[in-house]
Design a protein that fits this description.
Helix content is about 45%, strand content about 15%. The chain contains eleven helices and eight strands. The protein has an eight-stranded mixed β-sheet with strand order 3-2-1-4-5-6-7-8, sandwiched between helices.
Length: about 325
């Protein structure tokens, strides 16, 4: 009960913020679900971008039971398929062109061996990083980044990025030889580097300066990331993992507060990351820290490599 009071007090500190339209990928479970629920409780419209529409509708109804006046819209979104991303952007341009914020939460971890995205990338890096990059570029090409008003992008990072170096070797984004944990760490390191690059508003960036770019990581929390349909973990392991995470780490409702703060706090700075306050940044309410140095090096070569890797597959999409 004490924690619920503290959580409610934290959310209520943003009660007077002007109402926004916020796009959230992977909004039906885990961190995305908690963020959607929090924004709904504060009166904001949320566009729930979900791969599984059945689960998305179940999540939407669950939030509506708590907040009957919630303004929730469900749209199909598959981050492992460029064509699906393009269709999603077309809907956004038609129906929600004045959106205020984008939360890049969707992703996967430890998929079954050999799984690929629709364009043939290794599933983890292809979804967690290349799909995110492609979405941002498509929004740019659709002229949905407003140069006259502030919009915000919130990346969801990970503890896993701290000891991974950003390289400009093609294998960094396309390797089929590394294990699933290595793939996940590289994907989240690439996301952290992309966030840093965009937040600096380099003249070569495709994001205008009016768009504020932030990143947080949730620490360790109980989500469905180890039990998705593509996961290679056996059922017994996922049950134990969920139980252990529930007992020893913070709830997704707490972990998602970094997203809320970065989207709604008018005083937050772009040059920081929000992480949990607790020991080793595993759990706790959010606090700001500086970007780890490994996320700030070799950034421009990574951007060039990303464009090259995506162009190879994109050209194949539109061949007769």
């Amino acid at each position: 009960m004490k924690q619920n009071k503290r959580l409610n007090a934290y959310l209520n500190s943003f009660r007077d913020v002007d109402k926004k339209t916020i796009l959230i990928t992977g909004a039906n479970s885990g961190l995305g679900f908690s963020a959607t629920k929090h924004f709904a409780s504060l009166g904001h419209q949320v566009v729930m971008a979900c791969r599984n529409l059945t689960k998305g509708e179940e999540a939407r109804k669950e939030i509506l039971k708590l907040y009957p006046q919630a303004n929730l819209v469900l749209l199909p979104y598959e981050e492992a398929d460029f064509l699906c991303i393009e269709r999603f952007v077309k809907v956004i341009k038609k129906d929600y062109p004045k959106f205020d914020g984008l939360v890049l939460n969707a992703g996967g971890y430890h998929p079954k061996k050999g799984l690929l995205t629709a364009q043939g990338y290794p599933l983890t890096v292809g979804t967690n990083y290349l799909g995110v990059y492609y979405l941002l570029k498509q929004l740019s090409e659709a002229k949905l980044w407003n140069k006259k008003k502030e919009q915000r992008i919130i990346f969801v990072g990970s503890l896993s990025w701290y000891n991974v170096k950003v390289t400009n070797k093609k294998e960094f984004l396309t390797s089929f030889k590394s294990g699933p944990t290595s793939d996940y760490c590289r994907s989240k390191t690439a996301i952290g580097a992309l966030s840093y690059y965009l937040s600096r508003h380099d003249p070569s960036s495709f994001i205008p300066e009016s768009v504020k770019v932030y990143i947080m990581h949730p620490g360790v929390t109980s989500t469905n990331i180890v039990s998705s349909i593509s996961s290679s973990f056996p059922g017994w392991f996922t049950k134990i993992a969920h139980y252990a995470l529930y007992l020893f780490t913070h709830h997704p409702d707490i972990a998602a507060l970094g997203i809320i703060k970065q989207m709604l706090d008018s005083n937050i700075k772009e040059d920081t990351i929000l992480v949990p306050r607790g020991l080793f940044h595993i759990s706790g309410y959010p606090k700001p820290i500086h970007y780890p140095k490994n996320l700030t090096r070799n950034i421009l070569p990574l951007m060039t490599l990303t464009e090259e890797v995506i162009k190879e597959k994109k050209d194949d999409l539109y061949v007769n």
